[in-house]
Each structure stands twice: as C-alpha cells, then as structure tokens.
Amino acid sequence: MSGPTAPEAPALAEDLLLLLFDPRSGTIAGEGSSLFHTLAGAVLVDLALQGRIDVDEHATWSGREVRVVADDPPSDPLLRDVWDRVARRPADVHSLVLEVGPPLRARVIDRVVERGHLAREGGRTLGLFTTTALVDGGTSRRANLLAPVRAALVDGDTPEPRTAARAALLAASGGLPALHQDIPWSGAVYTRGRELQRGDWGAEEVGEPVRRTMAGLVASNLFVTAFVATD
C-alpha cells in the first residue's frame, strides 16, 4: 500500500469522511463497518467518474461485476490500489467493498489530517491512559462541501456531479439522520437522497458507468437505508 501523502485534489472518500465528521462531538457518523462500506463506495464512484471502471448493469448469481475500462491507472494512490485490484481480477461489488473497505479509514483520515482539515489531539483518560481524538482543523473545507450538499438534499438544487456523488453516498450510508444539525432530517430529504442514489443528478455529463456503480452499491445490501422521518 502507498504512503499517506495526499495528492493535490482531494479524493471523494476524503470529502465523505469530512462530511460525516461532527466537529461538535469529534465523532464520525457510521463508525465501523458502515464507514468502511461508504469509503469503499466513494472510491468506486470516484473511479467511475473518471471513466476508469464500469459495473455490469445486470447481476449474476455473484452480483454485479466491477471491471476496468481504461488502460491508464489513476495517479492518486488511494484510487490506484483499488484500480490495480480490479485490473488483476474483476470482482462483484459486494465482495470488492468488503475487501477494500477496512483499510481505508486510517488512510483517509491520514490524508484529511495532512491537509489540515482535521487534527489529532492527545489526552488522558482517568489520568492514566493516553488517548487521541480527532478535532476540527479550523479550515473552511467542511463548510464548503456541506453547503451544496445541503442545497441538493434540502432545497432540491441540481448539483454538479461530485456534489451529487457526495450527497448520494451520504444518503446510501445511512448517516444523514446523524447530521441533522447540519442537514435537517426529514421525509423529503430521505426521498431526495433516494433519487440521487438512483442517479437522478440532472447532469447530462454523468454517464451510465457512474449510474451503474451507484446502483451496484445500493444493491449490494452493504449500505443502510435510513427510516423515513415525517416533515
């Protein structure tokens, strides 16, 4: 695996982790397997947005297969590792998410910390045990990501592709209710999130590979569907 050095452009997985981070509590919504699945999904959608992978439209007995469709690998090492894995041997979405997801949390946090958007703060529990907590890094990155995502989910604005991908992945992760202080949770937000998961992005430049990738992730049964709240 490549080191933590972050390339110039943030990966979609970095943006998702930063959005899921609550600066008030220092926690990340969906910690555990849900977060692993979300970060793996973000990497696959990133590769699809770049035109480097595609997902079968129809599932076989093993699920929807992911395959490489471009000869040139991505320069971002976070994406390159997953691209290399698929290039060696195509795999169904479900198996691939389970395989590549667990190592991503630490790598993505390292990159977000390296950029200064999050920071690690040391402390002690009961005066004896050393602890490390994540805290807000004091940049405007999270707020700048949050505003268009909230506009897409709450106000129904037509998002540009990467904003649509962030909103769709947040909805698929089941983490939106935990972000209610930033994105007020309602039945309308749930419905809009489901639309974005289906690829209703209102952007002509978003191709079928991206839509199929999102559909494959949702169909993998690794992503949570939150309960509908009433307005």
From TrEMBL:
Gene3D superfamilies with a match to the protein in the record: yeast vps74-n-term truncation variant domain like
TM segment ranges: none
Record keyword tRNA processing present: no
Main subcellular localisation: Golgi
Membrane-protein topology: Peripheral membrane protein
Keyword check for Acetylation: no
Assigned keywords, A-Z: Golgi apparatus, Lipid-binding, Membrane
Subcellular location: Golgi apparatus membrane
InterPro entries found in the cross-reference section: GPP34-like, GPP34-like_sf
Pfam family, one: GPP34
Full protein name: GPP34 family phosphoprotein
UniProt organism field: Promicromonospora vindobonensis
